[in-house]
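Pipeline run #58 for the internal structure catalog. This entry was flagged by the ingest filter as a single-chain record with no existing model, so it goes straight to prediction. Upstream metadata was stripped on purpose; only the residue string is passed forward. Reviewer on rotation: M.T. Logging verbosity set to normal.
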Amino acid sequence: MNPQPKDATPAVAPSRQQWHVPPIRKVGIIGLGYVGLPLLLAYARKGLKVVGFDIDPHKPAAILAERSYIKHISGEAVAEALASGLVDATVDFSRVAETDAVILCVPTPLDQHLDPDLSYITATLDAIVPHLHPGHVISLESTTYPGTTAEEVVPRVEARGLVPGETVFVVYSPEREDPGNPKFTAANIPKVVGGMTPACLEAGVALYEAAFETVVPVSSCAVAEMTKLLENIYRAVNIGLVNELKIVADAMGIDIWEVIRAASTKPFGFTPFYPGPGLGGHCIPIDPFYLTWKAREFGVNTRFIELAGQINRSMPEYVVRRTMLALNERGKAVHGSRILLLGLAYKPDVDDMRESPTFELMDRFSALEATVAYHDPHVPVIGPTREHARWKGMHSTPWNQETLATTDAVVIVTAHKAVDLRELATWPGLVIDTRDAMRNVGGAATVVRA
């Protein structure tokens, strides 16, 4: 018989009158990155006091100096929140004691074997648990496998002598932040939440109703954890499908982008997904492997999901191979060539470089002894990364004719609006286009889709 998640007992939301939900006057946000900072601002806009916590001292310092360190969040928004008198930020985790609720927004990467790395979650819990008090609401938002809240959060809380559902309230609510999306912000994206007990769920709903327009309660933390994985695996699998179709279409001399546009005219039964040079961002390249890892504990092999992951992770190699062939046709070996990668952020018009396929391309071209540079108007210099430390401190190459004159091939990885591709079109060189960005640009450049 398969084991069941520890919080499998349904925690269907009761009536509001059944439970005493402690008042939430001050919220702690732990992790002030692309999820935590928007969440901090959302609570402040609703009139709640909020304290932001981070182990990186530069982030609290920037907030207190009324500066934003994330491109799509304005400094004015940070200054307005600070001016309200509701916002504070610190590296001192003992101040968790002054909050009524804490929300954990910390990274959940993969290790070198593609297994879940929960070290950020566990280290954060170990830092805050001594400062929890009766009545606290503890919410985990980091994307993870079903059972994490029950297996990692609850035992640490109980070791403190607190009882979930009685003296504290433990919930899971997956983040749904989409950096740079002008239509959907933290407050207007429906918020799924599950609790360890009915009382926990009620407290979690109250916590998120204070800042979000719509809260969606579900029966358990495991359901909420699985919901996030389904959302991102759905995208990863469909992107894997269209990436494989791109390779097939290229071999047949068919333009996959034209095929997608034609299929998109069907008013039912089709949702367009687009190929690319590999997956980026913190969620889609990582989340499927959290489920495949956990599924093995239950004796289940997630072959379909793993195949999509393999295809998506192979796309940088496909781009490199296409570049090598295109250079060869021009009588040039990749060895000794000067390769300019256009775009380091994983998606257009943001500065988020987490899991960007550009890093993989840089590694692969460099291994072939090409000279590698990048240009990204939103990432002027590469900061610390978990897996690509060798590139830390590298600066974005200027975008001008002098740069192009010394470049053998430009690979479009991310098509930022701030980059004028018409300038690239006038360059009589080789452009490897992974995003169909040059379709309507024309010009003298030789464009190869990859």
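catalog note: The longest helix spans residues 221-252.
catalog note: The chain has a mean pLDDT of 93.
status: ready for reviewer M.T.
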